[in-house]
Specification:
By secondary structure, the chain is an alpha/beta fold. Helices cover 40% and strands 22% of the residues. The chain has an 8-stranded mixed β-sheet, sandwiched between helices. Strand 5, helix 6 and strand 6 form a beta-alpha-beta unit. The longest helix has 22 residues. The radius of gyration is 17 Å and the shape is globular.
Length: 277
């Protein structure tokens, strides 16, 4: 089943050269740095960006797409910091590449398959360790959010089932944990019952595979008394947060992706501001 899910992720997510994202990041005035977060014999390379703020601020754990720690993910972390939050973005492929390297040490066609081989317990432990690192920073005010995209959107939902101190979770075009057989989506109510934080979903209108999971997830979360608020951006495609920023895009849905990205950003920031109080 894992191979089937991985092939679907790779089919619906697309990524190209991201020089534009790297150039934006290089012009940023904010302080960004790579740190090594160690736990249980592992070393997780993590990109941390600080907001320009006099006061302590919340932490946002950023979970990357199926393409690993890309230039866009790093630029997104910088944008999160620009919005007033400490961004911590782990490379979940740390140690999976040649000579113990991460995403950058792998060929582009090797990244997705490598992510597909990551043990779920290792992913959870990595995310928890990086979140804890962020919360221990002197500039942190002790509040934690999580946001993820594509593969990271699904991992965001999953992380919410394992992290009771979250203030809110933001899942971008990712589905909830499923207990169904191969090819069937059945919300895992046992996992969802553990969620303490509100979950906000951001979905593309032209993304039937993920969108098909929304009604059952809404029903399950309602039955469990959990907060789940999905919004679908019509005309947009899977990956609109990244594609909508790409100035080199020739995608036929680019205008709709730009609109979806802008509206989703506004909603995301509004929700973080609300739950930061």
């Amino acid at each position: 089943m894992k191979k089937v899910l991985l092939s679907v992720f790779l089919a619906v997510c697309s990524v190209s050269a991201q020089d534009w994202a790297r150039q934006k990041l290089e012009k940023s005035s904010r302080h960004g740095e790579w740190v090594t977060v160690k736990h249980d014999g592992r070393s997780v390379e993590t990109f941390v960006v600080y907001p320009e703020s006099k006061a302590k601020t919340p932490v946002v754990l950023v979970i990357h797409e199926i393409f690993g720690m890309s230039d866009w993910v790093q630029d997104l972390a910088d944008q999160v910091a620009a919005a007033g939050y400490i961004a911590v973005a782990p490379d979940l492929l740390s140690g999976a590449g040649p000579n113990g390297g991460g995403t950058k040490s792998l060929a582009s066609n090797e990244v997705g398959p490598a992510i597909g081989k990551l043990p779920p317990d290792q992913i959870t432990a990595d995310l928890n360790a990086v979140a804890d690192y962020g919360l221990r920073l002197p500039a942190s005010d002790g509040k934690l959010f999580v946001a993820g995209f594509c593969y990271g959107g699904s991992q965001t939902f999953r992380f919410a089932t394992n992290r009771p101190d979250l203030k809110a979770a933001f899942a971008f075009y990712g589905s909830a944990p499923s207990s169904g057989a191969q090819g069937q989506f059945v919300p895992d109510k046992t996992a969802l019952a553990r969620i303490k934080a509100p979950v906000f979903g951001f979905y593309a209108g032209n993304d039937a595979r993920i969108d098909a999971s929304i009604p059952a997830t809404e029903e399950a979360m309602k039955d469990l008394g959990k907060t789940y608020e999905p919004v679908t951006y019509e005309g947009a495609g899977h990956g609109f947060m990244r594609e909508g920023e790409d100035p080199t895009s020739t995608n036929a849905m680019h205008a709709a992706n730009v609109k979806a990205r802008d509206e989703a950003w506004a909603r995301w920031k509004a929700m973080m501001a609300k739950y930061s109080k």
